[in-house]
Amino acid sequence: MKKLTILTMLGLCLALLPSRAQATPESRAAVLFLLIEPGARAIAMGESYVAIADDATASYFNPAALAGQTNKKLNFTHSKWLPGLADDLSYEFLAYSAPVEGWGNIGLNVSLLNLGEQIRTDERGNTQGTFRSYDVALSAAYGAEIGENMSAGIGLKFIRSNLADQGAGIERGKGVGNSFAADLGFLWAVTPTINFGAALRNLGPKIAYIDASQADPLPQHIVLGIAYDLMDTQYHDVLFSFDLYKPLIADGSFASNLLKAWADEGLSDEFKEMDLHFGGEYKYGLSARQDEAFFALRAGYSWDSDGELKTPTFGVGLKYNRFQIDVAYITGEDTPQQDNTRFSLNLTF
């Protein structure tokens, strides 16, 4: 009961917190690196992971999925960013999760988008030196069981966007913005083979850089997902997942944002703003206990109808004892991540 009360009170406070975001398309939101999803396994499954998230990345995907994890876990994800366009751009993610006896589970993560070295110029275009840009977020999450086969979770994050160490031309101040946000998660084991998950992400105030009057909203959104374990035997496991993603940016509190996002536009327009994510995984056990050693094949598909992006994904995974290595390959056409590869290392201890 204590866990349920804590999660309920925090959730109500966040739902009533004014977001102060304008009714703006998500493409105009700031710190879009918060939308980069970690974990090569999740990427290979078309980013359909909100109802799974059974590793340390749960603190990003769905803090409710932290509940029930019985071991300490570590995830490190690395990916080159915009390959072929810039050599010094990269995305890094590090996460840790652990059970806390009698309370639930905690998770910590840090995500970094390294934007590389930039050239500073004056009003006439003369080079004035160089500087480095980056976006970073530090997060802490908590998840606990709230009922039979149900869990809930909350994550809090601090966001810092360091685009420039000083203004250019007539601008004054630094091109640096700070903000904070929260994530809420829910996970329900509907049956022994079907999970339903939901997550509300990046709930928080706008972020401002040089001019506070020109602050931009965070990329708030909701994700609903289902995972279906079609087969689970000693040596064979087949898992399918489906996620529905919807941006939420509007005036007022988050509670009103959720209603306005559906009421202000026609139903056909709402469907255009949704992203669909599908994924599948086949695991072959390499030992009598499949969770100790396995080889996995994965595939997925992301469909962004509004942005006209269709992205097939593929991947493999190999686990032996405490170590698991996952690799994802992103293909498709006219997507910023076309022909990109993402790597993850997972440790269980």
Protein architecture, described:
The chain is mainly beta and about 350 residues long. It has a single domain, classed as Beta Barrel (Porin), CATH 2.40.160. About 10% of the residues lie in helices and about 50% in strands. The chain has 5 helices and 14 strands. Strands 1-2-3-4-5-6-7-8-9-10-11-12-13-14 form a 14-stranded antiparallel barrel. A hairpin with a 5-residue loop joins β3 and β4. The longest helix has 14 residues. The chain is globular and about 70 Å long.
Gist?
With 349 residues, the chain is mainly beta. 11% of the residues lie in helices and 50% in strands.
Structural class: mainly beta
The CATH topology assignment is: Porin
What is the overall silhouette?
globular
Can you count the beta strands? Answer: 14
How far is the N terminus from the C terminus?
29 Å
Average residue pLDDT: 82
Biggest beta-sheet profile: 14 strands, antiparallel, barrel
Strand portion: over 45%
Under the CATH scheme, the architecture is Beta Barrel
- Identify the CATH class: Mainly Beta
What oligomeric assembly is this protein in? single chain
Number of domains: 1
